[in-house]
Amino acid sequence: MALNRLWLHSVRTRFWRWLADRIVDAPLEPILHPSQGRLGWLAAFTFLGHLIFGGIWLFWLPQPFDSVWIRVSLSLLALAYILPAVTRDLSSPKSNWVFGIATWIQLPLFFSWMFWMNDANAAWLASLSAAILVYYHMTDWRIAAGGTLLGLAVGAGVASLTYPGELHYALPMEQYVVISFSYLMGLMLGFSSANLRRARLINMLSTMGVMAHELRTPLATVNLMGDVLAGLATSDLPENKRKRLDELGQRLQNLVRGMNRLIDTQISNAQLMRLPRESSLIDAKALVSEVVSQYPYKTSRERECVAVTIQENFAFSGSRPLFAQVLTNLVKNALHSLAATSKVIEPGDLRVDVGLHHGKGRIAISDEGMGIPHDRQQRIFEPFFSTQSGAGSGLGLTFCRNVVEAARGHISVHSEPNLGAVFIIDLPVRHPTE
Length: 434
Prior knowledge:
Layout: H1 2-24, H2 36-60, H3 68-77, H4 84-87, H5 93-117, H6 122-138, H7 141-162, H8 173-214, H9 216-232, H10 239-269, E1 281-283, H11 284-294, H12 300-304, E2 306-310, E3 315-317, H13 320-339, E4 350-357, E5 360-367, H14 374-377, H15 396-406, E6 410-415, E7 421-428
Parallel strand pairs: 2-4
Antiparallel strand pairs: 1-3, 4-5, 5-7, 6-7
Helix pairs in contact: 2-3, 5-6, 5-7, 6-7, 6-8, 7-8, 8-10, 9-10, 11-13, 13-15
């Protein structure tokens, strides 16, 4: 009996862990495969689709209650996909909400409403079933699952208010079976696709993590060379040679420290989809001060260009080592952007600000560097996409986004080419009493 209880407890624990990992805590993807090109195609397909099918149902195979103004309105609603406010930052809450509402209105709500208004005929039964499957193709399967049920309920309610006669919901059982089948197939395909994308990403990152780990052996040799040079700098040599040897030793050791930080990032990326969701309390001021002071700057001028401003301190929940790596990545990127400019960096060219904004804690890292082109800003958080041609792995900002989102926060970028960039991290504020 005790063995059975332990087995049941183990199964129950694994199930709840799987449920939390794959469904509850997995990041939402309100816009599947976000890119300007994909949204452009979706806007064109939706815009033309409503006009074409409106013409079919209005003039060729007339369907009751379909109208020109409804089709034109839905076609114009499709243009929301290509609004600059949406495409500028596809990871922002505003873009996700606009996309989600526009898609929900055009698919489950509209097709459900017309299904009931046209007495649930065969044409609208097929259209509603297709709309459900298309909805799963456009957004996260969890959003599609809830949005479809909500659209069916709201569509039926709107139909009961707008139908000129008495609306009968007692349909043949075959129609309910067809709709349920479409819903379940969409749910299954959406869940399978999400798992496939997740497995591919984990496999690629695991391979990179192993490769990064193997680099530690040659780096240990380089570090020993730095120690040897530092030892020679203390021997009986002319002053200029001792100074040169000491400088070379320090540069080698800084290089090793920087490479080890990069390796730590890649190994963490190997667990990208399984980041620890710790509940330890982190002091933002202390974290920023520690990262800025311990960063392996190449020169004293780099160190002097960093300015830290604490407008108002706050605390938040998360993994301190991972957040330290996030800030290190952002500082590194900012310094690289400054180095790419032709001007000499000055104090204050890289700023780290800590404060509160609309009830949330905010850490902002801004620089006066090269900036990021507008057409790349919505892609910089994608895995393996890098603005540093041949120099970046394309995983640093993906790592940053996942760490921040694991702490229920949000990271965004605002930039103008040749005028610098600012990365903003907004986090829920926590208090020691919580």
